[in-house]
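so im writing up the methods section and need the Fumarylacetoacetate hydrolase family protein record in one place, dumping it here so i stop losing it
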Amino acid sequence: MRIATVRGRLAVLTPDGALDVATASGGRFGPDPQTAFADFDAFRAWAGTAGGAAEPFAPEDLGPPVPRPPQVFAIGLNYVRHAHESGLPVPTQPLVFTKFPSSITGPTGEIELSGDTVDWEVELVAVIGRRARDVSVADGWAHVAGLTVGQDLSDRTLQNAGSPPQFSLGKSCPGFAPIGPWLTTTDELADPDDLRVVTTVDGETRQDSRTSDLVFSVPELVSRLSRSVTLLPGDLVFTGTPEGVGLGRTPPLYLRAGEVLETTIEGLGSMRHTLAAPTGERARA
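--- predicted struct ---
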């Protein structure tokens, strides 16, 4: 099943187009995409048998499938080869930071750069479907509503400012957490633990790896996070980026205004964004 935000409303995608949930359910489920996670088990059961007239839609009609996540977790150095290119040891426990929810945006459109050191980071994003506290690894997938494509855009100058540096502000500028194009439930995937992840810039491949290289898998992350915090329905977990980031090149290579950033994950779809020059105070800095 694929769940989407279409023209600002919750929809289930079918081969014929988008089925508006509020209309098709007779008001049982509302139009707000975030409400699908209030009782995701009930929503999924209804959506599996839902019928009605589906409407065509364009990629530009799609918004973030989870527009207002209660919490957004992100994991650093969670691919073996990315740790190697960073010159750091492979972590023995997840390195956790946050991307603030105000950075969430949809799968198409324009993203304003914050400066001249903004990096790309393709990420598999897990969406929590059930409240999770002290969950076992074996039960991790059962608490995931589905998966979506994400980019952890990162202003490296801001990320590494200060001593010690902090990550969250440099990764939370407006538009720095695009997700989409929709949420896909794991039953649609042959192996949700092994998906190809790709970033291209102006058609040039910058990252090309597989989620089987994750240090901590999705169910492991759900389990470990839930030991410390309560995971809430609709939370996002950005699971980390593979090798190939701009910071790891010699010399470093960063995104520039006018470039087109495309992000694809096997079985989950693609996002496409155009990068724009900084405006306002950032442009004058």
